[in-house]
Amino acid sequence: xxxxxxxxxxxxxxxxxxxxxxxxxxxxxxxxxxxxxxxxxxxxxxxxxxxxxxxxxxxxxxxxxxxxxxxxxxxxxxxxxxxxxxxxxxxxxxxxxxxxxxxxxxxxxxxxxxxxxxxxxxxxxxxxxxxxxxxxxxxxxxxxxxxxxxxxxxxxxxxxxxxxxxxxxxxxxxxxxxxxxxxxxxxxxxxxxxxxxxxxxxxxxxxxxxxxxxxxxxxxxxxxxxxxx
Length: 229
Ligand code: AMP
Description:
Blueprint: E1 3-8, H1 15-26, E2 30-32, H2 33-43, H3 46-57, H4 63-73, E3 82-86, H5 92-101, E4 108-114, H6 117-126, E5 127-130, E6 136-138, E7 157-158, H7 165-187, E8 192-196, H8 201-218
Parallel strand pairs: 1-3, 1-4, 2-3, 4-8
Antiparallel strand pairs: 5-6, 5-7
Helix pairs in contact: 2-3, 4-5, 6-7
Adenosine monophosphate binds next to helix 2 and helix 3.
């Protein structure tokens, strides 16, 4: 039994946080294409140099490039028990490529987190990321400049360079143009569910687990106890 979960939703919907928790509770890898690309940029690798400017503008890197990365990652043995994909696919060609990559495996469980645009802009501007361990933190309600250290590892919290209002609005524009049609591609499948991502993190978690369990039960997959709310 493998839980092959795909988390869809606009930037700032909370996909990364929920995907992280789901992956941890099930002992399966979270595969975030944004994290993979940011690590490449930080390390100054050839890949990093190729994608840095595109990411800074809030645009998408090419389907070929990102699909190659995901194909290689999903070919590793640690995904035998399942995986959580965060940030991929983002276009119809990527979704079609993913279907090819996972052909013959357990069905994809596709979850869309829905959040209104204005809430996303608010959330993304408050987002801080730990430079050392990658944990996301919200600086809501406090003086954002006072939130400087990661509670998990003590690392420095920084704002992602693509989390400014102008770049977020561009990422949302790209989302509605390129990614929304891809969600329609999945929307007709019995293994697709949309959940309300505008609630608090624990309510979203309950909705996520409930949706995954419902799909898994319908698809005849047995869900391990860790997945129950
Ligand atoms: P994220 O952390 O998922 O918001 O991704 C950050 C940036 O990485 C995006 O704005 C894109 O520039 C790039 N990126 C991540 N995943 C993909 C993807 N599946 N397709 C194209 N570009 C991507």
